[in-house]
């Protein structure tokens, strides 16, 4: 079956005065119907940019300079802007991190829902209202009639994120890109939102890309994960296999730095150093300066190679199962 | 909300009281109006009679109290030169000034908003540079100079535009207006444009700055990512947010525009209150000057009050002031 979304060898670059910076390189990944892909990596690794490259909303001077974005097998990169607009919200929806900022502060919830509905469908006033009410009801918002009339600041953070999710799902999109939608919320609310999105996507067979810098969040949610480092995917595969036996030293480091509940005292191991800036990446493997396993073989950028069945890793010295970095 | 308005009204009253003192005492220390009435043969006895008649023999604080007492009853005294109630003269001339000022406001918004929005969206293009240069010139060149140059160019050299008066007016029952006749519009165009330039420059700057800020917010990205057409994103989602500072500044500036109309009215012989003020100052017609100044103060105070109310209508976060933040 063709995947809902497939990125092939994507490259996104920024035209800067001091030269072109490639923020995403050789980026390939895919998500199928009903599948949840976790996209993890530290700040600045290119997670959000991946999302914006998919729906082509990168702010200038950035643009996709290479590769393909295939939606149901069709490359949508060459589409004119007007066609691309019709896919946004209808086929590919997006949810953002900060629910305080995602909803327009000066427009009523009803207006914001209506605008998205009317962006893709011709509906009468009463139809708009019915759809809006149903959408709010579906994400578990009590007394939706009253909520329609309020402004975002009159809702709590959790409620706002529910509204944003309701808006994103209005047209039953085939793919939802969720960019850290729970990071700004309390832990308990976080859990509720996670469960909500998971349920809605599973019920409808929606493919979901869940972006997070928090491996713990992704662990309980995703079917597969892709780990990003400095604009490249360094490891990809089924979540359980990777969490059990990471093959890339960076993934290993990420896992080791997550605190395990009920296991106090064991010192958390941090990855030494920090991610290099895109402007001065090392010539070889970008992780080499921080990697304990680095050798002279790492002086050339490794390819993303198949590893075991259904996994891929970008490392010349991948870890065997259980091996420490 | 009601409490808020009451508080603002009380503040406004206080400002009014202080201003009546400043205006009254300020005007009463300059010149001696007795000589307006005295013929060249008037001897001391005749002068004394005039002084008593005008109440100028009283101590100044008593004169002030009389003035305030009359003011409360809506009586601002009779113009020395015209011999009719000063307020009456002002109300006769005010519509012309208001028409000029409102036309300027409409021009400022009609041209300033699109220019500012465009410059905010393409801040580095040629168009934006041109627009910003225009706004800088409009802001810094003296109004009287622009007015004179316009008259020299369009009236004297080219002979396209009339340079004097209101042209044909239409009587709407309670006011006479120029903008409903072609000839009136023809007369209105140059003075209104001249008066609008400073406001237009401000609108351009505010709209540009607002647009640049708003376009990076998550709610604009969210609206775009949901497929809301660009026209709607800019025309409603972004515009409503950038209007908030513009309304505030324009509202506060509008009183100044009416005051500034003095210059424009003099240049274009526009029969408004500003022109009347200049004439009144020339002959030291105290009641008329005081009445004018009191009216201007009253207008400023009312405008500020209106701006606050309008502002709270535009920004729901203020309207519910004190509620959830
Ligand atoms: N407008 C821009 N101009 C130049 N470089 C940019 C721009 N936007 C993003 N980048 C670069 O792209 C890289 C990836 O940014 P991105 O926002 O995708 O990171 P992220 O993984 O989402 O991080 P975070 O966890 O902080 O959200 C950054 O390192 C940044 O340098
Ligand atoms: S390629 Fe070399 S430097 Fe890069 S992660 Fe693997 S071992 Fe470390
Ligand atoms: Mg991000």
TrEMBL record, chain A:
MF annotations from Gene Ontology: ATP binding; ATP hydrolysis activity
GO terms classed as biological process: peptide transport; transmembrane transport
Localization (cell): Cell inner membrane
SUPFAM superfamilies (alphabetical): P-loop containing nucleoside triphosphate hydrolases
InterPro entries reported for this sequence: AAA+_ATPase, ABC_Ni/Peptide_Import, ABC_transporter-like_ATP-bd, ABC_transporter-like_CS, Oligopep_ABC_C, P-loop_NTPase
Domain ABC transporter: 5-255
Cellular component GO terms, alphabetical: plasma membrane
Membrane topology: Peripheral membrane protein
Pfam families in the record: ABC_tran (PF00005), oligo_HPY (PF08352)
Sorted UniProt keywords: ATP-binding, Cell membrane, Membrane, Nucleotide-binding, Transport
Similarity field: Belongs to the ABC transporter superfamily.
Full protein name: ABC transporter ATP-binding protein
From TrEMBL, chain B:
Transmembrane segments: 12-31, 100-121, 133-156, 188-207, 242-268, 288-314
Residues in ABC transmembrane type-1 domain copies: 94-307
Keyword DNA-binding listed: no
Superkingdom, taxonomy of origin: Bacteria
Compartment list: Cell membrane
Database matches in Pfam families: BPD_transp_1 (PF00528), BPD_transp_1_N (PF19300)
Keywords, alphabetical: Cell membrane, Membrane, Transmembrane, Transmembrane helix, Transport
InterPro entries per the UniProt record, alphabetical: BPD_transp_1_N, MetI-like, MetI-like_sf
Keyword Transport: yes
Main location: membrane
One term under GO cellular component: plasma membrane
GO BP terms, alphabetized: transmembrane transport
Membrane topology (UniProt): Multi-pass membrane protein
Family: Belongs to the binding-protein-dependent transport system permease family.
Name of this protein: ABC transporter permease
């Amino acid at each position: 079956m063709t995947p809902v979304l497939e990125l092939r060898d994507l490259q996104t670059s920024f035209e800067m005065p001091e030269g072109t910076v490639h923020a995403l390189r050789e980026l390939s990944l895919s998500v199928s119907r009903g599948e949840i892909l976790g996209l993890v990596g530290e700040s600045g690794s290119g997670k959000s940019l991946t999302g914006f490259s998919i729906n082509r909303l990168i702010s200038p001077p950035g643009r996709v300079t290479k590769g393909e974005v295939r939606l149901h097998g069709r490359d949508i990169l060459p589409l004119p802007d007007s066609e691309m607009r019709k896919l946004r919200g209808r086929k590919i929806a997006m949810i953002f991190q900060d629910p305080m900022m995602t909803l327009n502060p000066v427009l009523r919830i009803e207006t914001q829902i209506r605008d998205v509905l009317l962006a893709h469908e011709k509906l009468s006033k009463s139809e708009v209202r019915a759809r809006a009410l149903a959408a709010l009801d579906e994400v578990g918002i009590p007394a939706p009639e009253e909520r329609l009339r309020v402004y975002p600041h009159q809702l709590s953070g959790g409620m706002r994120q529910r509204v944003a999710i309701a808006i994103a799902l209005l047209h039953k999109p085939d793919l939802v890109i969720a960019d850290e939608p729970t990071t700004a919320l309390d832990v308990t609310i976080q859990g509720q939102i996670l469960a909500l999105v998971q349920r809605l996507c599973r019920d409808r067979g929606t493919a979901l890309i869940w972006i997070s810098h928090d491996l713990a969040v992704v662990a309980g949610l995703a079917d597969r994960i892709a780990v990003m480092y400095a604009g490249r995917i360094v490891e990809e595969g089924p979540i359980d296999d990777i969490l059990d036996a990471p093959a890339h030293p960076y993934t290993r480091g990420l896992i080791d730095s997550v605190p395990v509940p009920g296991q106090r005292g064991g010192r958390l191991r941090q990855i030494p150093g920090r991610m290099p800036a895109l402007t001065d990446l090392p010539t070889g493997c970008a992780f080499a300066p921080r990697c304990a396993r680095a050798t002279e073989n790492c002086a050339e950028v490794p390819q993303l190679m198949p590893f075991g069945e259904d996994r891929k890793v970008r490392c010349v010295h991948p870890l065997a199962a259980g091996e420490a970095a | 909300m009601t409490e808020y308005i009451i508080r603002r009204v009380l503040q406004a009253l206080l400002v009014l009281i202080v201003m009546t003192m400043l205006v009254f005492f300020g005007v009463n220390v300059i010149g001696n109006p007795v000589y307006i009435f005295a013929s060249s043969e008037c001897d001391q006895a005749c002068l004394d009679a005039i002084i008593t008649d005008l109440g100028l023999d009283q101590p100044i604080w008593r004169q002030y109290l009389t003035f305030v007492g009359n003011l409360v009853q809506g009586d601002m005294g009779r113009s020395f030169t015209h011999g009719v109630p000063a307020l009456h003269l002002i109300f006769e001339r005010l519509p012309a000034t208001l028409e000029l000022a409102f036309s300027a406001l409409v021009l400022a918004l009609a041209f300033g908003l699109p220019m500012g929005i465009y410059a905010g969206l393409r801040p580095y293009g040629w168009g934006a540079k041109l627009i910003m240069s225009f706004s800088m010139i409009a802001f810094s060149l003296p109004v009287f100079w622009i007015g004179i140059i316009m008259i020299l160019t369009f009236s004297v050299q080219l002979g396209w535009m009339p340079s004097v008066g209101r042209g044909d007016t239409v009587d709407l029952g309670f006011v006479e207006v120029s903008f409903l006749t072609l000839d009136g519009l023809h007369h209105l165009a140059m003075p209104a444009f001249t008066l609008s330039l400073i406001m237009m420059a401000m609108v351009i700057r505010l709209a540009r700055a607002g647009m640049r800020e708003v376009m990076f917010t998550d709610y604009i990205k969210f609206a775009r990512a949901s497929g809301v057409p660009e026209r709607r994103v800019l025309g409603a989602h972004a515009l409503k947010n950038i209007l908030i500072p513009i309304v505030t500044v324009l509202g506060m500036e509008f009183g100044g525009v009416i005051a500034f109309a003095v210059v424009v009215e003099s240049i274009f012989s526009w029969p408004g209150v500003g022109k009347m003020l200049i004439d009144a100052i020339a002959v030291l017609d105290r009641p008329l000057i005081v009445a004018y100044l009191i009216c201007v103060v009253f207008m400023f105070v009312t405008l500020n009050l209106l701006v606050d109310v309008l502002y709270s209508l535009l920004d729901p976060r203020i309207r519910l002031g004190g509620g959830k933040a």
